[in-house]
Amino acid sequence: MKCRVHPAYVGKGKPRSKNPKCVCSKIHAQAEKRKPKARKWSIDVEDDPLAFLETAPEAEIVTTDLPRFSNGRPKPIINREPLLESADSFIEATLAQKHPELHQVRAPEGYRLRGASTLVDGAGNVVQQWVKTAKVQDDPAFLVEICKAAILADPIPAAPVVKKPKATAAELEVAVVIGDAHFGMLSWARETGDDWDVNIARRVHLSAIRQALSLAPPSSRLLLINLGDAVHSDGNNAQTTAGTRVDVDSRWAKVVEIFVQTMNTAITEGLANHDHVEVVNIPGNHDSQTALMIRMILAAYWRDNPRVTVADNLKTVWGHQFGNSLICAMHGDKTRLNNIPSLIAEDFRKEWGNTKHTVIYAGHLHHSRKQEFPGIEVEYFRVLCPKDSWHASEGYRSKRSLRCDIWHREYGRVTMHEIGIEQFEHA
User: Fold this and answer.
1) Which of 77, 156, 240, 416 is a good FRET partner for 129, with 20 to 30 A between their CA atoms?
2) In the predicted model, what is the mean pLDDT of the chain?
3) What distance in Å separates the CA atoms of residue 399 and residue 383, rounded to the nearest whole number?
4) What would the mean pLDDT of 191-212 be, rounded to a whole number?
5) Confidence class of residue 376 from pLDDT cuts 50, 70 and 90?
6) Percentage helix, strand, coil, to 5, in the chain?
7) How far from 103 is each of 50, 131, 236, 299, 358, CA to CA, in Å?
8) pTM of this prediction?
9) Where residue 427 falls among pLDDT bands split at 50, 70, 90?
10) What's the domain count of the chain?
11) Residue 316 burial by Cβ neighbours in a 10 Å radius (0-12, 13-18, 19+)
12) Same domain for 220 and 126?
């Protein structure tokens, strides 16, 4: 038997090796005598929807008329569009030709079909089948629309009416920057050095914000910037958005309610000394979906107050121009430090070109860090919450504080107030 893959001779020259007989001939002869046996083949949509063609009995149907290599294996399809509009339709069309019963496989509601494993005998008859499914992840945009509809459908208590201040400095703007608040985190002093629960989080943050507002002069605008991870978990499962288990205090719904109440109190008190209050909620890696819901709740609550704006930010970075300054905020978990300047230059091309001072507020790290690039400053902020069990065991010992920056329309940032946790130890 001659081997088409490894011919013994090349042209009319000498043999390729001392043994002109191809050793593959024995293997090919044995393969021809081998009888078909029952075997299991799998279709995994996530890995490669076309990988099963070489092993499945149905492959004969699809690849019979396709061009083949010299070893008999089918050549890859260069233009798959005529045969394949999507992986799902291709698999269904292939299986339906020989096994119509497999074509009826559907995932139950709330789940998606990952693939199917089928055991067939030598004649191609189905012996057994396993259907692989996975839970469908909730679409954040869909969740936002559901929350928005639910909020607007029920009567919402009217937001408090706050009298506008008589005199404010039009050339000033105040930014109260809240590092990762982690409402709902549970910390035990005997284990971590500090106690922390949802009630302590509310008292401490309100105390720090009130202290910051007392130090800030009346201005044209107050920025209340939440840098992300305001809520410790992204649902009732005590997990972050990515599924990391965390120590939580109380129920998730209660935690969200208390954080919203805290922000509403800060907004109300801010309106007393500032012409306008803008609230910025940055999604973090702990609460990327919850942050969207919180933004919609605040927007619905203050919808009839023209002096309150809730930033409609869905991008990685939020930006705001005030005179000669560009003030931006991001969580800081998705973009490397050295890539931030180019990101700002692309997303805020016009604003950066029209300003002289650009500062990026970032969270995520829980400690103070500042890096200056040509034309831009990136600053990571401390937080008011203490360490949880894992961070305490890993040796994290950063200081805890909140920041209040005073911005001038022409000169940029002119004053910074650091509100340390020591002022609220007994709050």
Assistant:
1) 77
2) 81
3) 8
4) 96
5) very high
6) 30, 25, 45
7) 17, 12, 37, 47, 58
8) 0.67
9) very low
10) 3
11) middle
12) no
Check pLDDT > 90 for residue 115. no
- Helical (H) or strand (E) element with 284: none
Report the CATH number that the domain containing residue 366 is assigned in CATH.
3.60.21.10
212 burial type by CB count under 10 A (0-12 exposed, 13-18 middle, 19+ buried)? buried
Spatial separation of the C-alpha atoms in residues 46 and 61, rounded to whole Å: 23
- Do 81 and 119 fall within a single domain? yes
Same domain, 329 and 194: yes
Same domain, 266 and 311: yes
166, two tokens? 């008589």
* Shared domain check, 30 and 4: yes
Beta strand segments in 121-198, E: 126-135, 169-178
Q: Are residues 213 and 309 in the same domain?
A: yes
Q: Over 90: is that where the pLDDT of 169 sits?
A: yes
Confidence band, pLDDT 50/70/90 cuts, at residue 330: very high
From the list 288, 295, 377, the residue with the least C-alpha distance to 329 is 377
pLDDT (0 to 100) of residue 100: 57
Kind plus residue range of the DSSP H or E element containing 319? strand 317-322
Among 79, 108, 135, where does a domain finish?
Answer: 135
* pLDDT winner (highest mean) among 127-131, 320-324, 393-397, 423-427: 320-324
What backbone torsions phi and psi does residue 135 show, to the nearest 5 degrees?
A: -70, 135
Q: What distance in Å separates the CA atoms of residue 284 and residue 264, rounded to the nearest whole number? A: 20
82 has a pLDDT exceeding 70: no
Asked if 408 and 348 sit in the same domain, the reply is: yes
Whether the pLDDT of residue 4 is over 60: the answer is no
The DSSP element (H or E) to which 88 belongs, if any, is: helix 87-98
How many angstroms separate the CA atoms of 256 and 371, rounded?
33
Biggest CA pair distance of the chain: 104
Rounded Cα distance between 267 and 351, Å, is 27
> Which of 216, 176, 179, 169 has the alpha carbon at shortest distance from 323?
169
- pLDDT over 80 (residue 289): yes
pLDDT at 132: 78
* Domain that residue 110 falls in: 36-135
User: Quick one: 95 and 186 in the same domain?
Assistant: no
pLDDT of 92 higher than 60:
no
CA angle 377, 365, 235 (to 5 degrees): 125
- Which pairing describes strands 169-178 and 369-373: parallel, antiparallel, or unpaired? unpaired
